[in-house]
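Students often ask why inverse folding is considered easier than folding. One informal answer: many sequences map to the same fold, so there is more than one right answer. In these notes we will look at a single instance of the problem. The structure comes first.
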């Protein structure tokens, strides 16, 4: 299978929201309240959110797809159309990951203490379907995100927040040049979690 990367469009929103509903719970720490996680997905990872991000000049929403053999029989109501992220039969592709960059001025004082109070770029999200973890998809998405970041804000570091208990994610980010520089509180459906803040200089 071949992986391709591209900027998302509003037409991708339903598939992206379906993928987010699969991947976000896997990144939450053990013991997270399932109701809080479900509320976060409903309110923060809805199709409407993805439509807005795809349209926004302050965001770069990048998706990863893998080509799949065409059977010539897939339809929009195919049993696996939503569960696997398969597009329509003409595209012969399956959505396997996405990354979201955000341009803005931090309003959280914990973040300001790390990156300052000028416009900067946050790697807000980077997720890969569990079936594609352990492949090169995540690294390809990361490289694409880092390549896109200067187009939002040039000559500034990229920062991200990730759960303090998620050692696997932190190791992945360190592999790509990020280092822990601070901490923050991140709220998921009304439930507070302790995040580390990691920063990577551009260039």
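Output (designed amino acids):
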């Amino acid at each position: 299978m071949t992986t391709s990367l591209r900027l998302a469009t509003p037409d991708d929103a339903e598939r992206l929201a379906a993928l987010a509903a699969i991947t976000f719970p896997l990144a939450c720490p053990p013991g997270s309240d399932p109701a809080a996680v479900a509320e976060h997905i409903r309110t923060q990872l809805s199709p409407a959110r993805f439509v807005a991000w795809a349209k926004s000049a302050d965001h770069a929403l990048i998706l990863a797809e893998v080509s799949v053999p065409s059977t010539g029989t897939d339809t929009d109501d195919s049993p696996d159309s939503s569960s696997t992220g398969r597009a329509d039969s003409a595209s012969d592709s399956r959505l396997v990951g996405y990354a979201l960059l955000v341009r803005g001025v931090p309003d959280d004082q914990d973040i300001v203490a790390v990156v300052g109070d000028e416009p900067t770029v946050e790697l807000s999200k980077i997720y890969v379907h569990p079936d594609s973890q352990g492949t090169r998809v995540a690294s390809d998405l990361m490289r694409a995100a880092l390549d896109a970041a200067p187009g939002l804000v040039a000559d500034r570091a990229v920062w991200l927040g990730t759960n303090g208990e998620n050692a696997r994610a932190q190791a992945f980010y360190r592999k790509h040049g990020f280092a822990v520089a601070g901490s923050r509180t991140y709220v998921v459906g009304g439930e507070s979690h302790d995040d580390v803040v990691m920063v990577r200089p551009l260039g």
